[in-house]
Amino acid sequence: MTNTPASIKLGGTGVRASTGAALVGALIVWVALLGPLVTLLAHVTPASVWKALGQPGALQPLVTSVTASLVALAVILLLGTPLAYLMARGRLPLPRVWEAGVILPLLTPPLVIGLLLIFMVGPATPIGNALSHLNLTASDTFFALVVAEIYEAVPFYVLGAMAAFAAVDPALEQAGALLGDSPWRTWRRVTIPLAAPGLANALAVTWARAMGAFGAVLIIAYHPFGLPMQIWVTLQESGLASALPFALVLLVVALPVPIAAYIWSARARRRI
User: Fold this and answer.
1) Which CATH fold topology does 59-271 show?
2) CA-to-CA dists, residue 172 to 167, 181, 194, angstroms
3) pTM (2 d.p.)
4) What is the DSSP string of 135-175?
5) pLDDT, tens digit (0-9, with 9 covering 90-100), for 188-231
6) Which long-range contacts (CB under 8 A, 24 or more apart) does 114-119 make?
7) What is the DSSP string of 78-108?
8) Residue ranges of the domains in the chain?
9) What's the whole-number mean pLDDT along residues 52-73?
């Protein structure tokens, strides 16, 4: 059947109308997502930030959060990268069980994670007793803060890194092996460079998640205060306005890394 010019014109009008509606919907979602950030900037002044950060000890939560997140990130990178690679290549037995083990913590509410951690690694547990021999306590300590951040952030890295490794063509790794490279050399010179954009995104999201960890932290690491806990305590003691400067500091520290990683990875993918 041949389309008449009228039907083509009507079809084109329908496509334009659908595209216009989709753009309007996308704009609404985009504005809604940025709304809280715009609201924060509208209610925070340089004077209020200076006043909040000028108080004695006000910067200590920032130092605590950054240090704990860096330690958590190092542990996640060291242990999560091999796991993500093996999962991506299907080299683990019962792969669906391994995937479930990564996804379930992601789906579990952070407050529940904190409660379960108390029963798993708290001072009164066998693991907590073993940790005590190493002078470590997984309750209201810097170590507990790191543990809570790891449990809240590690699924984001493993799943992101797994996707990055899965995007690398195994044939390229096999070509490296045929050229005489050892598995480690092939992994270092072929796999990692090709997966680097995705790994950077996964690591950056993990950094932001660790910096903003709160639910599990509230349960097992109320002290020492990190930035999220400082926001909560200030909100309870002094109200919304007093907590906003600390919220801005958290965003300033946590968000630039994911944004930079996204820009770099987008450029790197275009070069590959």
Assistant:
1) MetI-like fold (1.10.3720)
2) 11, 12, 10
3) 0.83
4) T--SSSSHHHHHHHHHHHHHHHHHHHHHHHHHTS-HHHHHH
5) 788 888 888 889 899 999 999 999 999 999 999 888 888 899 88
6) 114/148, 114/215, 114/216, 114/217, 114/218, 114/219, 114/220, 115/219, 117/147, 117/148, 117/151, 117/216, 117/219, 117/220, 118/219, 118/220
7) HHHHHHHHHHHTT-SSSHHHHHHHHHHHHHS
8) 59-271
9) 88
